[in-house]
Amino acid sequence: MNKQTYDAIVVGSGITGGWAAKTLCEQGLRVLLLERGRNVSHRQDYKNEMKAPWELPFRGKGDKRYLDSYKSVQQHNGHLDEWTQDYWVNDSEHPYQTAGDTAFNWYRGYHLGGRSIMWGRQCYRWSDTDFAANGKDGHGTDWPIRYADVAPWYDEVEAFIGVSGASENLAQLPDGQFQPPMALTPVEQYMREQIAAHYPERCLTIGRTANLTEAKLSEGRVACQRRNICGRGCSFGAYFSTQSSTLPAAMATGRLTLKTDAVVDTVEYDATHKKVTGVNVINRETKKREQYRARMVFLCAGAFNTVALLQRSVSESFPNGLANHSGTLGKYIMDHASTLGVASIMPGFEKHYYYGNRPTGIVIPRFVNLAEQSESYLRGFSYQGGAYRPSWSRGTKQAGLGEAFKQDLRGPGDWKFVLTTFAECLPAERNAITQDWHNKDADGLPQLRIDFAFGENEHKLLRAAKDEAAAMVSKAGGKVLFGSDRPNPGGSAIHEMGGARMGKDKTSSVLNAYNQAHDIDNLFITDGAAMASSACQNPSLTYMALTARAATFAASQLKQNKI
Fold first, then answer.
1. Distance from CA of residue 228 to its chain's centroid?
2. What is the chain's alpha carbon radius of gyration, rounded to the nearest angstrom?
3. Contact 365/172 with Cβ under 8 angstroms?
4. Distance CA 8, CA 563 (A)
5. pLDDT at residue 1 in the model
6. Domain chopping of the chain, boundaries
7. Which residues of 2-33 are buried (b: 16+ CB within 10 A; e: fewer)?
8. How far is residue 52 from each of residues 44, 73, 397, measured CA to CA in Å?
9. Count of alpha carbons within 13 angstroms of residue 374, beta-carbon side
10. Mind listing the pLDDT tens digit for each residue in 407-434?
């Protein structure tokens, strides 16, 4: 068995793993970054990036027989198509279980960079409304941090990755270090004005996205080309990914060692010194076992895989999973309750169009239960969406024949305005992941069992969101076509989180205020597993800020021999 020693091991190379590696390396540490999947090199491995539909066998739609056989779950996410299908896991090789009639879509990417290649790039700060919610209404455990603790790290992350957006001076959605915003379409601008006039407490603004509107040439990144094909990988480096941003920075230090095809089986624990000592790895290609040692370990494998790794790392000291003296490991998992709030037609703008394929939409931040509880339900919801005119391809989904039908398709369709709801998911003990020890995946790891269901409060939020979306559209003169208050299956927002939550009390949480395990001071968890609540906005920016903060703290502690 091969044994090598580093200052720090980082497990996982996605959004948080890349940030952990960058920060630790820049703090002077020798770092090993482990990725379970294949290598994907920036630019040279984006094989479908520039291909037109007619250059693909199935014109971008994909082979239904192939998808049903190998992407049975992954095919249901809106980011997968024939250009991107290879980035999403093979479900036949990496199955998981659900409890009873539980529906949960677990969307994953096992390769260098993880989902940082395919993510939606929406970057929203959390506020004290979010960090204080658990302590205020008693659901979950109180966060050990508040906005002021994270704000400087939001600044650092935004400035480095490049986030375009507009400042709006909203307490519930703090402004950040923004590059110039992308433009609203004419209908979106009209809706912004109408919403402000009828609902002064609400704000429609452009989505805050990790797409550059100004080049960062010193980092080899140029401004967004407005292609909106980001999920294929971007040779321009115009959006943030591990490959385009954090990995080059870490490599530039000369202190990073990267190993792909390295499946981390367990984390090693020394009961005498009460420290983790390294990780045990299965080489995905050779199936040989390897061991790597380090003075500390960062787990950034994605929320559920990090929890699974801890659950597999059992010992006499931790028979129910590593760092689990609280008994909360695997519990209180969350995902946003998401659905189509409203689809509508906006008449009167037939002479207007827009330029390019903007890679972001609009957002309407949370506007209920802010300063005080004012509704019959807890917490709140936000919307994302936008206005657009469909092209000729709309003809594939509508009835029609003949010359007149074809002539109509030569021009753009009616203006559509769509709002998708993202509702906060309350942390609930019943929502949990465990190990199916009897069934293994292709790497020889136990399959996960996911037990998850949205509760009564999530359903109330979606009903209210549907009604409010329809009201806003109607006030503006739009024609509501349909909407929904039925949540998509859990996991559909691709915001799965929780399972190793932060908290003030070590008897009810896994991690402290610095993402450090209560039970083991040289073990850190900074991906979505650490989240104690879900808020109702995208969590990735918060993951990155917490990672930068934790890694800076950990490096300082290591240098002082405090861990």
1. 18
2. 23
3. yes
4. 12
5. 45
6. 170-221+337-423+453-489
7. eeeebbbbbbbbbbbbbbbbbbbbbbebbbbb
8. 18, 26, 21
9. 8
10. 888 989 999 999 999 999 999 999 999 9
